[in-house]
Amino acid sequence: LTLVLKKKQQVLEEREQALEKATATLNRDRSEVFGDKSDSDVLHLNIGGDRLAVLRRTLTSVEGSMLASRFSGRWDESLEKDR
């Protein structure tokens, strides 16, 4: 019984290591695609001449919305910026 449990534990540890490696790869790939943007980034917007500071997570809170797509961080380099 002890031998069976040790083998199962070894299998679980190997699977956990594989999962951790896959998670690290996913996070690296996601960072490359979307950039290292954090939900807590403060974005400074000029809306009709009014300057506002807003958290990125506020603008991206509704998945699939135009704001979520626009401010996900993926397009930051192509957004016009005020001088």
Break the fold down into its secondary structure elements and pairings.
Layout lengths: L1 H33 L7 E6 L2 E6 H4 L6 H5 L13
Antiparallel strand pairs: 1-2
The largest beta-sheet arranges its strands as 1-2
| Number of E-state strands | 2
- What percent strand? 5-15%
Distance between the termini: 71 Å
Alpha plus pi helix count: 3
- For the CA atoms, what is the radius of gyration? 21 Å
Share in helix = 40-55%
Q: Taking all residues together, what is the mean pLDDT?
A: 82
Strand count, sense and barrel status of the largest sheet are: 2 strands, antiparallel
Structural account:
Strands 1-2 form a two-stranded antiparallel sheet. Helices cover 51% and strands 14% of the residues. The chain has helices at 2-34, 56-59, 66-70; strands spanning 42-47, 50-55. By secondary structure, the chain is α+β, with helices and mostly antiparallel strands. The longest helix is centred in the first third of the chain and has 33 residues, at 2-34. β1 and β2 (50-55) form a beta hairpin.
